[in-house]
Amino acid sequence: MPSSPPAAAQPVLRFAPSPNGRLHLGHALSALTNERLAQAMGGRLLLRIEDIDRERCRPALDTALREDLAWLGIIFEDGVRRQSEHFGDYRAALDDLHRRGLVYPCFCSRQEVKAVAAVHAAETGEPWPTDPDGAPLYPGSCRARARSEGAGEIGRPHVLRLDLERALAVAGEELAYDVFDASGGVTRVVAQPRRWGDVVLARKDVPTSYHLSVVVDDALQGVTHVVRGRDLEAATDIHVLLQRLLRLPTPLYLFHDLLADAEGRKLAKSRGSESLADLRARGVTAHEIRRELGFF
Q: pTM, whole model, 2 decimals?
């Protein structure tokens, strides 16, 4: 049964950005937190490029983020894992789940799911449930259909969803994970996968998702401690479930606070938050960045 890594194992941490925009101060905080903890624990620090989205992720941005990290003075182990070079690993995990009847094809678009939610709200006066990211939960329209007639339509655009209730039945015992802190304390947290519903694990054009690829990568790279922003804390519910289903170890987790802009909004590439390259162009030094973020 999967469990947290043994205490005697050398810690392995990773920083895993996506080359779909320029890194900003929030990324610097996460990378520097991983660096500090790896050094404090005598562990290894890996760099992983999460570029499964081939439309938005570009080689020039891959190069740029590595230049930003080098400018910050962060040293990673040699060898970078790029997700786009390992789709076979994710397909193997997905095939395992498929053989066990834990995933099914879904032909519903996002707009159709939103329409179901809107009709429900209009007819009942009650809001449709949403997942932790605020998206309407999938109503299960294709779940039964996929087992009876969906196989004949597999050529149509579709996604592959996790059958959550079946998955939980297979997983069995209570799902939980350990959250650690910089002082060495550990807190047990009970996972709540039901709040995510039947999540998407792959699309017709991309044989994986963030949830699936990150779980497979962490296991293959021997990651023992996952340090990431608090905005990804809820996603750990699904990650722990997938680890149990795929018979993979569950790392220890730490979720650091997020940085906000002057309006109180989380720094984000999509909002055009000032990038590290912008700061560098204004004459800000890496030493000043480290000092501002509390790493001196």
A: 0.92
The beta-carbon contacts of 27-30 under 8 Å, at least 24 apart in sequence, are: 27/65, 27/68, 27/276, 28/68, 28/72, 28/276, 28/289, 28/293, 29/256, 29/259, 29/293, 30/227, 30/228, 30/229, 30/256
Q: What is the spatial distance between Cα 93 and Cα 82, in angstroms, rounded to a whole number? A: 17
What residue has token string 């996002």?
Answer: 110
Residue type, 54: R
Residue 152 has what pLDDT?
47
β-partners of residue 187 are 179
Residues 154-187: b if buried by 16+ CB within 10 A, e if exposed: eeeebbbbbbbebbbeebeeebebbebeeeeeee
Question: In 3D, which of 215, 103, 245 has the Cα closest to residue 160?
Answer: 103
pLDDT at 265: 85
E strand intervals along 120-251: 159-162, 176-180, 186-190, 200-203, 225-229
Query: ∠ CA 203-249-105 to the nearest 5 degrees?
Result: 20
Which domains does the chain carry? 12-103+159-292 (3.40.50.620)
Q: Would you give the distance in Å from CA 153 to the centre of its chain?
A: 30
